[in-house]
Structure formats: C-alpha cells, structure tokens
Amino acid sequence: MAEPKTSEATKQIVYLAAALKAPRITEAATRLADQARDAGWTYEDYLAAVLEREVAARNASGAQLRIKAAGFGFPKTLEEFDWDAQPQVRPQIGALASGGFLTEARNVVLLGPPGTGKTHLATALGVAAARHGHRVLFATATEWVTRLTEVHRAGRLPQELARLRRFGLIIVDEVGYLPFEQDAANLFFQLVSSRYEHASLILTSNLPFSGWGGVFGDQAVAAAMIDRIVHHADVLTLKGASYRLRGKGIDSLPSISTTTPETDA
Ligand code: ADP
Ligand code: MG
Question: Whose CA is nearest to atom 18 of ligand 1?
Fold first, then answer.
C-alpha cells in the first residue's frame, strides 16, 4: 500500500523543508503531489513545480521588504500611470522598467513642471528595481543633504558613501526645489561622484539643467555634477499641465506659466 509510505515521506518533507528554512515546500509538496499524480507529471516536472513555489514566494517577500525599506513616500507603480498624459516617455520608461540600466550603473533624470508625474515615475521605477532584486533608497534632495551633513559631521562620510554604493539604486527627488548652501552642494556632489559608474541614480527636477547652477550656488559645481550624471543617463522630459489640477479648470500653475516674464529666462 502506498498510504503509509506517503505519510512517512510527508513527515520527512516537513522536517527537511524546515531544516532548509523553506516552509512553502511543505505545503506545495503535498498539494502538487496530488496534481502530479492526476496529470501524470514526470519526477522532474514535480520537483521543478515545488521548488518554483518556494522561489516565487521568496522573491515576492524579498521584493516587499526592499520596497518597504526604500522609504518611498507613497509606493506607486507603472500600472497606475496614465500614459495618455505623457505618451512620449512610454517607450523609454518601459525599457527602464526591465532594470537593465541598473546593471550598467546608468542614471535616469526626470525633468518637467510640477505635477507631471516625476515622483510617480521615479517611485515606480524604484519599485520595479526592488522587484528585480535591487536594493533601493528614496529621499528628496534636501533629505539626502541632511543625512550626508550628519554623517559628515560625525566623520563617517566615506563609510556612508561606501555603504550607499551597495544600493543598486538611489532616488533623489526634487532637485532644485530648495537651493543648497555651498557645503550641502559639495556633499551632494560627493554623492554623485561616488556613484559615478558604480551604481545608479534617479533624479527628478522641475528645473532644466540650465537652472541647476542657481540650486548649487556655483556654475562650475553644477556643470561638473551634470557631466557625471548625464554621461551614462536617460534624460526624460515630462510635459503638460499638472495631473493634480486636471479637470479643476486650472490650466497651469503660476510658477510654470509661460506668460510670466520671470520664467521666460
Ligand atoms: P511631480 O513629482 O512631477 O510634481 P507627481 O509624480 O507627484 O508629480 O504627481 C502628482 C500626483 O498626480 C501624484 O499623486 C501622481 O500619482 C499623480 N499623477 C501624475 N501624473 C500621473 C499620470 N500620468 N497617471 C496617473 N497619476 C499621475
Ligand atoms: Mg514630485
């Protein structure tokens, strides 16, 4: 009779799966064994199906942990993005979502007026990267500078930059939202330099590159930084009115109106 044998084997599977710290094997092994018998799977088919369940579950929970640890304000995905609002970037974002840019340590820069989806897309690319197994950290430019200033004061900047290089992706949201003091600009420059050709950055900004000199207080620092960022980068420009203001009868925000003389420069 097969019955006693099966239950003996099942007990052993429970023990062995626990020893391997692979708890889903216990559940999948029994359930899939019935399916395998019914469908006449080969031993190899059965083993592959069982192991596949464990690997899929591990990847999913690893991705969940990486997404949590990344510090996204609101986790957003590409599935939630309305491409009709930004059709021109769809092919490029689609290609970036496969994660190839991370293994090449390439950067992504998302430029455009407020509300056009820069933070959404940066976050969604970060979520995709986490799903591909990369460690990700998200913060605004101001938050990065605050963190770096603290570690610099504590004399640990080189160690921190080395630690950050182990993250495949660092997202710097809202470059240019606030101008930097010179010390802050230098710290930010060091972050960019330390990742150059080692690990990826995604930056978002509502300013074109020509406006970055004002943010970093120095054209030379800004130029050197932009040079390193865009040497291996995809630069995407989002266009149009704020998605937040859609359907509210407001065409544009004062700061991005093309008719105000201050922003014509
Ligand atoms: P930005 O960073 O460019 O100022 P956000 O990415 O923060 O803009 O977008 C503002 C809000 O509008 C967010 O809630 C975002 O999810 C949403 N949003 C922007 N563009 C789109 C879009 N094309 N499809 C769906 N939601 C969008
Ligand atoms: Mg934003």
Answer: 117
